[in-house]
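Structure (tokenized):
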């Protein structure tokens, strides 16, 4: 009998969203740590790899040997993920589309939401990215398919043409939706979502709504979490501690101070990531730069809430950012070991590919509007 909770750990594998960073520092080394840890603990992982960056790297390899080294390391890192037995799926930050490379920097667009791009751009990004991954992976894993997509910066709206393109590309699972999330500056409004727990069949024109029929795509919602004073305090303390040294962490890669117009790019422009008021701060399950107390509290809280639901089999997505892992390696290992020890009877870990097959075999798990 399957365990009640299917834990889907997905890593948004990328450099910084504003284009800064080096593949070696932000992608290869942290993901190597995570893969070795997961193999030792017997945990399945899915790396949602950001491919738009790689498409832009490829355009100027002949004139920039530094980028050629990073491009090749990126490709080999993907092969290593497959060799280690992990899953690789699609993640896109569309601000990379046709980025300008100038004076050693990529100048990205300020639109981080692929849903707000025109249909032709959506088609180009998705089809080119799927082809890139399949051409890279199929020589070593012939049955490889792209079946899952995670929206960069949670941007999936407007959803009509976007879901159509993902459907045509073979994507069967879409993530990035959390009920109650709103990022007006990035065009994200998930304040009202009709299903917040189980995979559901979305209306393509408005993925917040459930369709009356089963479509090819299922949306798996992110589970909300509102930290109490102690875990939130531990998180804020670690953030403040990390900011004691205000030195530019990217400067040593570029031989000069990073231009403000590059550093300032963010999907949170004109809004605060942490908003404190009468309503509690709400986020979702994450592994990144959070201390153990916060990680433990978030998982305990979410599973306690899900136990109150009537569903027998519940997928639980944990969003990761391995680029944030340095200085938190011990917290992450301690947390995953805790989950295995305390919840062994209730949880199992799966990849997105494995869970897509489970949904295909058991379509009744996907909710529709009655």
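Design, position by position:
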């Amino acid at each position: 009998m399957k365990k009640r909770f299917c834990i889907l750990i997905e890593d948004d594998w990328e450099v910084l969203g504003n284009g800064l960073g080096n593949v070696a520092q932000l992608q290869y080394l942290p993901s190597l740590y995570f893969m070795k840890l997961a193999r030792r603990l017997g945990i399945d992982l899915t790396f949602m790899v950001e491919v738009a960056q790689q498409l832009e790297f490829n355009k100027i390899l002949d004139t920039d040997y530094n980028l050629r080294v990073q491009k090749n390391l990126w490709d080999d890192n993907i092969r290593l993920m497959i060799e280690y037995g992990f899953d690789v799926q699609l993640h896109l930050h569309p601000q990379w589309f046709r980025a300008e490379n100038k004076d050693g920097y990529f100048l990205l667009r300020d639109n981080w939401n692929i849903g707000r791009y025109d249909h032709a751009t959506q088609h180009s990004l998705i089809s080119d990215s799927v082809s890139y991954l399949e051409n890279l992976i199929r020589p070593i894993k012939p049955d490889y398919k792209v079946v899952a997509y995670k929206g960069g910066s949670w941007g999936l709206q407007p959803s009509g043409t976007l879901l159509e393109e993902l459907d045509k590309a073979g994507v069967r699972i879409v993530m990035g939706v959390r009920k109650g999330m709103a990022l007006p500056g990035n065009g994200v409004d998930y304040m009202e979502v009709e299903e917040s727990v189980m995979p559901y069949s979305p209306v393509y024109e408005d993925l917040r709504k459930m369709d009356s029929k089963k479509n090819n795509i299922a949306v798996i919602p992110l589970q909300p979490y509102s930290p109490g004073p102690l875990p939130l305090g531990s998180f804020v303390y670690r953030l403040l501690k990390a900011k004691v040294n205000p030195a530019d962490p990217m400067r040593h890669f570029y031989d000069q101070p990073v231009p403000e117009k590059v550093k300032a790019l963010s999907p949170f422009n004109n809004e605060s990531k942490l908003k404190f008021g009468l309503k509690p701060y709400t986020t979702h399950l994450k592994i990144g730069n959070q201390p153990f107390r916060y990680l433990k509290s978030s998982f305990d809280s979410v599973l306690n809430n899900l136990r109150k639901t009537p569903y027998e089999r519940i997928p639980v997505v944990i969003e990761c950012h391995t680029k944030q892992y340095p200085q938190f390696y011990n917290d992450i290992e301690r947390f995953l070991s805790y989950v295995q020890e305390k919840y062994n009877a209730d949880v199992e870990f799966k990849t997105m590919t494995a869970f897509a097959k489970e949904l295909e075999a058991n379509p009744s798990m996907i909710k529709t509007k009655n």
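Reviewer-requested clarification: The chain has a mean pLDDT of 92. The chain is about 35% helix and 15% strand.
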